[in-house]
């Protein structure tokens, strides 16, 4: 692109109808990603008259397509990321170029990010401790609980193995020899708080905002680690979508140990696509500068994944053991087959090696295609990075009592009742500590790559039982919500009687 002088810049969609351009871009990217391998699927995207109604089926098809062979998985990922960079625009003054044509070094040269360092006053926790149901699990109690989670199908065996390794190697908790950068350091399920309690040295990146950085500074001071973060004249924090070139330069300058990058930043709606695209350019630039860089990605429980045959078999076995309650649920499914107690898995997918897979679909209809694409971009990068030999940690998060969950009136009621269906909802404290432990294990003892790239998303998942229970999550919403409300009313009545 040449030596363009960058001043104030922004990452934006190309010109178009403001109310439609985001949908147009997401549709074009998905069509480009699948076209070399399924022309019919690409055509269904391009001819769709209502992309917001049909995107869900297309993402299902794209997931099934990706698991069909390693070549297709990598090809879809490569084509999709190249398409995003062609579609999005990087605007600086009067200069507007495609994202893929950005000269990161030239863009970074025009902005200088300062550095602030804070060190916590706490004492490092010297062993892995998991807060759980009012107790702190460690050592033997934690091992017993891990066994229970595995037996009940709450966490996948790969996740259990990783956490057990950290129990055996508490010296890993401080991340000796690594310098981990957290993009979206303040994320509710991010590993910042556990890592600080263990005494790790970190780089933290998050958006500007007085309240946000006041909370982050309090967390850092309360911990036992050391954190460096970028600052500008306006204060701490940077917008990744606007400042990713400068962040590449800043992170590189701070990396005095083996670099690792954790991508925890997110945003709602179309902003999530821009953020994910900017983070991907930043990630690729860092990988080019240091191929030893390790990557860490959190996966959403509300997405679509191809799961291996043993997971499908476990779900079907539970369906066959339902007894009278199972028969009643089967009757309700026959009455309302599309909305009540639908099977979690139907037709199997057979890959190029003859292995059978099921399609787990928990992608929300109402979230829209921009949400779905923002979740898919880091998955594509994870596939390509693993194929290129970079260490990659990817962990699907469990259902969790997050602040966002409580914003939707019916969800707390549904979550209260899902334990009856073999699903466990975790507190944020337990979920982020477990996932931080998994990240630590993946950095020091990376799991071996498998034949099918899509297994990266499933082998170490912490899905909370969603994958191994018999029913599709959406078909449980109505009965779980009703049951949850009934339980809430009963509990309220019992509390009143107790007070009397």
Short structural summary:
By secondary structure, this protein is of the alpha/beta class. It contains 17 helices and 16 strands. Strands 4, 7, 8, 9, 10, 11, 12 and 16 form an eight-stranded mixed sheet that branches. A three-stranded antiparallel sheet has the order 1-2-3.
Largest sheet: 8 strands, mixed
CATH superfamily grouping of the largest domain: NAD(P)-binding Rossmann-like Domain
CA-to-CA gap between the ends? 76 Å
Mean pLDDT: 88
CATH architecture of the largest domain: 3-Layer(aba) Sandwich
CATH topology of the largest domain: the name is Rossmann fold
Protein described:
The chain is an alpha/beta fold and 500 residues long. The protein folds into 2 domains: 9-110, no CATH class; 114-306 and 367-490, NAD(P)-binding Rossmann-like Domain (Rossmann fold, 3-Layer(aba) Sandwich). Helices cover 48% and strands 15% of the residues. It has 17 helices and 16 strands. The protein has helices at 21-34, 39-46, 51-66, 70-87, 104-109, 139-151, 157-168, 192-198, 210-222, 240-254, 269-289, 309-320, 323-335, 369-387, 410-417, 428-444, 473-499, and strands at 9-12, 89-92, 95-98, 114-119, 130-132, 135-137, 178-183, 201-205, 226-232, 235-236, 258-263, 294-299, 304-308, 349-350, 356-361, 392-396. α1 runs antiparallel to α2 (39-46) and α1 runs parallel beside α3. It starts with 8 loop residues before the first strand and ends with a helix. Mean pLDDT is 88; it is low at 1-7, 326-338 and 491-499.
């Amino acid at each position: 692109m040449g030596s363009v002088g960058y001043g104030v810049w922004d990452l934006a969609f190309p010109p178009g109808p403001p109310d439609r351009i985001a949908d147009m871009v997401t549709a074009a990217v998905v069509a480009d990603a699948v076209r070399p391998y399924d022309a019919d699927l690409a055509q269904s995207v391009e001819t769709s008259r209502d992309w917001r109604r049909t995107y869900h089926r297309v993402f299902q098809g794209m997931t099934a397509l990706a698991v069909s062979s390693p070549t297709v998985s990598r090809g879809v990922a490569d084509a999709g990321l190249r398409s995003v960079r062609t579609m999005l625009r990087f605007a600086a003054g009067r200069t507007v170029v495609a994202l893929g044509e950005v000269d990161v070094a030239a863009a970074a040269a025009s902005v200088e990010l300062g550095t602030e360092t804070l060190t916590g006053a706490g004492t490092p926790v010297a062993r892995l401790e998991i807060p759980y149901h009012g107790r702190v699990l460690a050592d033997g109690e934690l091992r017993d609980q891990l066994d229970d989670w595995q037996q009940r199908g709450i966490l996948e065996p790969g996740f259990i193995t990783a956490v057990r390794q950290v129990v055996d190697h508490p010296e890993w908790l401080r991340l000796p020899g690594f310098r981990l950068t957290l993009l979206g350091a303040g994320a509710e399920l991010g590993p910042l708080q556990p890592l600080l309690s263990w005494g790790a040295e970190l780089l933290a990146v998050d958006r500007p905002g007085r309240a946000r950085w006041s909370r982050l500074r309090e967390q850092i001071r309360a911990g036992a680690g050391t954190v460096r973060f970028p600052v500008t004249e306006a204060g701490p924090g940077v917008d990744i979508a606007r400042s990713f070139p400068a962040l590449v330069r800043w992170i590189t300058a701070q990396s005095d140990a083996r670099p690792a990058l954790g991508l925890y930043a997110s945003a709602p709606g179309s902003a999530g696509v821009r953020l994910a695209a900017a983070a991907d350019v930043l990630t690729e630039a860092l990988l080019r500068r240091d191929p030893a860089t390790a990557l860490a990605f959190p996966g959403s429980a509300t997405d679509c994944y191809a799961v291996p045959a043993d997971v499908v078999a476990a779900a079907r076995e539970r369906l066959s053991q339902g007894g009278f309650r199972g028969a009643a649920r089967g009757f309700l499914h026959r009455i309302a087959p599309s909305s009540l107690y639908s099977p979690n898995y139907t037709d199997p997918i057979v890959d190029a090696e003859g292995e059978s897979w099921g399609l787990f679909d928990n992608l929300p209809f109402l979230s829209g295609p921009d949400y779905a694409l923002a979740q898919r971009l880091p998955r594509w990068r994870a596939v390509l990075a693993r194929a290129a030999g970079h260490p990659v940690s990817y962990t699907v998060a469990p259902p969790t009592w997050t602040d966002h969950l409580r914003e939707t009136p019916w969800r707390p009621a549904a979550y209260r009742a899902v334990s009856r269906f073999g699903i466990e909802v975790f507190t944020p404290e337990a979920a982020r500590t477990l996932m931080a432990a998994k990240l630590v294990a993946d950095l020091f003892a990376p799991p071996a790559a498998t034949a099918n790239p899509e297994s990266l998303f499933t082998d170490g998942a912490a899905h909370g039982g969603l994958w191994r229970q018999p029913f599709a999550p959406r078909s449980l919403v109505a009965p779980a919500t009703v049951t949850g409300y009934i339980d809430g009313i009963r509990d309220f009545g019992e509390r009143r009687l107790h007070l009397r």
